Amino acid sequence: MFIIDKINVKTTDTNKKILKDFSLTIKDGEIHAIMGPNGVGKSTLSKVIMANKDYIITSGTITYNNKKLNNLTTDEIARNGIYLIMQDPSIIDGVSNSECLRTALKERDSTDTNLYTFITKMKTEIETLKLPSDIMHRSINKGLSGGERKKNEVLGLKILKPSFIILDELDSGLDVDSLKIVAENINNYLKENKDTSVLIITHYSRILDLIKPDYVHQMEDGKIIKTGNITLAKEIEKTGYTGINEMRKRDRNE
Amino acid sequence: MKCEREIEMNKILLDSTISYDKEGIYKQELEKDTVININNSNIKLYLLTKESIKIIININSEVEIYNFTTTNLDLTLNLLKNAKVKFYQMTITDKRIKNIITATHQYQETISNLICNGISYGNGNLSFIVNGIIKKGNINSICNQTSRIINIDGGKSLIEPNLFIDEYDSLANHSAYTGPFDEKTLFYLESKGIKEEEAFKLLLKGLFKKETLPKDYEEIIDQILIKALRR
User: Fold this and answer.
1) Do A103 and B187 touch (CB under 8 A)?
2) Across the interface, do B183 and A53 touch by the CB < 8 Å criterion?
3) What are the residues of chain A with a beta carbon less than 8 Å away from any beta carbon of chain B?
4) Are A101 and B205 an interchain contact pair (Cβ–Cβ within 8 Å)?
5) Checking phi first, is residue A205 left (phi over 0); if not, alpha (psi -120 to 50) or beta?
6) Structural domain boundaries of chain B?
7) pTM
8) A2-253 architecture in CATH?
9) Disulfide check for A33: which of A200, B41, B54, B155 has CB 3.0–4.6 Å away?
10) Residues of B in contact with A73 (CB under 8 A)
């Protein structure tokens, strides 16, 4: 189970408060989506979970499977089974995909992964994701389109086999066909790994039509202000974030 | 002195002029001032410069040149008729050294791409002085340079990208970076479960391995890299 309990977060350099008493519980196998307009702290949340040095948790705790993550480093958190697909995955010239993923596997298992098994698995997944066949030996995300970069991150997911996945704006930079392929691959992974939980961070509900969430949360000013199901996402899509907030104010006054 | 193709590193002991007339891959270790003439296309030349020496390379064709050093260097590329050169400089040092790389376009429609990567570690103070010169009348010439020095634990560095362009009808670009590795890049690798130290190693090795290098040449670079990483 993944639990965020009343965390307060500020930026390292400006001391600006980003997350305020933020709480969220995700049980094994559940899919949660967080929606909200720009600047409410959605992407920050994903970086805070992964212990990005740009942010400091001033109070509260993050635990995963009863293990407190607050004082762990980014790599330790990842090795605990948490995998972040970033909104804008880095391009790293000179480091190949296979080097990166083999090193990551080695760090997890403390033994060198069998090369034949690794290559066979990579080839199969590359084909399934319809990625260029030479991507294994290419520099990380170099020369790839926005969509291909996201697919490449899904390739990493399928190789590293996490139990908790964070999808930060997965649909940004993806065309309709690529989005379908990516969502299909994630759904298949979830079918094969039923205890895997997912946190989807998104502006739009279209991704939620493809990866169906159990819960949808609306975020504003550093915290969750409403929780519902897919209907909430549809309402937001229909009226916009401003519209749904005005409706809520009206309801409260009545 | 002519070099054999696909051979082990040759030490230049007496001759100071080398000519490459046939296409192929050549590896050359240099310990004294040398003039190199490249007279054929499809030549890849891997140099290893060991002392503080001066090298002049005269180019009449399309060529890729790689040079690895840990010391001072003054290297000039003379772009003669039909010259198109990709030049890769790789330097690792913990000393105060200067690498001067100059591309002189002496003919029309010549192209130079200079890619200089360095690592300055410990008490290192590495300077790249990268000069691109297009003389008047050498129209349609292109002169590009990209330089990058990564500083590790106290290492210092300086890049001076100089473009001396005396011909309007030509193109010149430069980019330069000195400093540590980008935090975002380290975060990306660490978020895959790779320890900071390992991520650092991958990035350091990657700095020089953007291009495919011959195995024995790569091994020489690796040995120096391991020394830098042990710190």
Assistant:
1) no
2) yes
3) 50, 52-54, 73-75, 78-79, 83-84, 86, 89-90, 92-95, 99-101, 103-104, 107-108, 139-140, 156, 160
4) no
5) alpha
6) 17-180
7) 0.83
8) 3-Layer(aba) Sandwich (3.40)
9) A200
10) 190, 196
